[in-house]
Amino acid sequence: MTDAITASGLTVSYGDTLALDDLDFTVEPGLVHGLIGMNGSGKSTLFKALMGLVKVDAGEVRLYGADPERARRAGRVAYAPQNEDVDWAFPVSVEDVVTMGRYGQMGWRRRTREEDRRRVSEALERVELLDLRDRQIGALSGGQRKRAFVARGLAQGAELLFLDEPFAGVDKRSEATITELLRDLAAEGRTIVVSTHDLVAVPALCDRVALINRRIIAHGDADDVLRPDLLAEAFGGFVPQEALRA
Ligand SMILES: Nc1ncnc2c1ncn2[C@@H]1O[C@H](COP(=O)(O)OP(=O)(O)OP(=O)(O)O)[C@@H](O)[C@H]1O
């Protein structure tokens, strides 16, 4: 089976800051992968590089064997950004945000067809936001906002979903709802990569765990990866205690 992601020798810098350093990352399809690392370890940059959204100094990315930009344009990959990267005051409804997932298929006039409206409704129903479809996106709770972005990816028909910190600012109940949703999507064959600081959330959510600190330090089963020595390497000598209890 073709891997969902293969990245090799990926190097990205912003001026003098080296964000990714000769990083290799291979992701099996149909699983939930957790991407764990401290602030500034390159998690968001990795997502952007995998989607062809930042300039890569060196290295190569393939998504299902294809060029990342092509995979993105074909709607095969979707990205739910960190809260800070979204303008929540923007005057769009939840339904508008999910409809954006259909833009690639709509043509330049962006006129919605029956098929688009059906896919949007199905996606909203799937994430249990159908009754909030007319609400302004910023008037949702943290967990509902994340689900709206997942719905956008589903409306688009994405096979590969990237979620940047989906549990930030989300209560335990919403976290459980999102976890269940992502587990179901993976069971249907989608591939999911989730960046999180929340190590306690990892066992319930992730099939595999990757530790990142500008490169991938370890990637595999949680028991093999969440080891004190590897965590110390990822977290710069500081081992988060909750990681060892996870
Ligand atoms: N647009 C940018 N311009 C300059 N430096 C940047 C930019 N984006 C990220 N960086 C730097 O690149 C490094 C990696 O940042 P990145 O946002 O990928 O890390 P992260 O693991 O997602 O962090 P966090 O957990 O805080 O969101 C950091 O040192 C950051 O300051």
TrEMBL record:
GO molecular function, one term: ATP binding
Entry annotated with the keyword Nucleotide-binding: yes
Classification via PROSITE patterns: ABC_TRANSPORTER_1 (PS00211), ABC_TRANSPORTER_2 (PS50893)
Keyword tags: ATP-binding, Nucleotide-binding, Transport
Signal peptide (UniProt feature, chain positions): none
Superkingdom field: Bacteria
Domain spans labelled ABC transporter: 5-239
Family per record: Belongs to the ABC transporter superfamily.
PANTHER family noted in UniProt: IRON TRANSPORT SYSTEM ATP-BINDING PROTEIN HI_0361-RELATED, METAL TRANSPORT SYSTEM ATP-BINDING PROTEIN TM_0124-RELATED
Name of this protein: Metal ABC transporter ATP-binding protein
Source species: Solirubrobacter deserti
